[in-house]
Design goal:
Strand content: under 5%
Number of helices: 6
Number of strands: 0
Shape: elongated
Number of domains: 2
Radius of gyration: 31 Å
């Protein structure tokens, strides 16, 4: 997931820069229409990327929580994933706000109001802020992926851990097992060999 996110983020930054340049060089209604269409597509892609980042961190948090609960592991990784999700959520607001301002000032400019300067400033700020936000989100998604990988390795080791033999408990029967069932005479090998069993009553 982090690699896919990084690739799509690179495409998004390129589209943002292309939209900015196309808006600067637009000289006829056809160029303006292409600029608006590309701007809308780029804005929707940015929102989709933020949603994907939030969804990924939420799923990782649930998987880590289940593994910790089932294997009785340390809760530190779960709290770490919650912190990652919280930081990703805060970055979503930082990344969406400039996009919304660009769309708003662009609509203001298309309405005939002289707002080109504000639109250009907002577009330039959106390019810079989006690049920083996507870089930080990529770093956080990489952290989440690393936490999940470590927890799943620990979980698998806990599942493949050998069971405790009765002899390791000092000859005492495990909880829930009677002394007769725990005795050597009641073992499956003795039953197959036909050794006599003491039957009470």
């Amino acid at each position: 997931m982090p690699r896919v996110f990084a690739w799509v983020a690179g495409c998004e930054i390129f589209l943002l820069a292309a939209t900015f340049v196309l808006g600067l060089t637009a000289t006829n209604p056809g160029d303006v229409r292409r600029h608006v269409g590309l701007a809308l597509f780029t804005s929707l892609l940015a929102c989709l990327m933020h949603a994907a980042a939030l969804t990924y961190t939420a799923v990782v948090g649930k998987l880590v929580h289940q593994a910790v609960a089932l294997a009785a592991l340390d809760h530190a990784p779960f709290h770490a994933t919650k912190n990652v999700k919280r930081r990703v959520t805060s970055l979503i607001g930082v990344g969406i706000l400039p996009i919304a301002v660009v769309v708003g000032t662009g609509a203001w400019r298309l309405s005939g109001t002289a707002g080109q300067r504000w639109h250009l400033l907002a577009a330039g700020a959106a390019c810079v802020v989006s690049a920083v936000v996507f870089y930080r989100q990529y770093d956080l998604l990489s952290q989440a992926a690393g936490i999940l990988a470590d927890v799943m390795k620990t979980y698998e080791r806990s599942r493949t851990r050998p069971a405790i033999r009765p002899s390791a408990q000092g000859g005492k029967p495990p909880p829930g097992m009677t002394a007769a069932a725990h005795s050597p005479e009641s073992s499956p090998d003795s039953l197959i060999a036909g050794e006599p069993q003491d039957v009470a009553g």
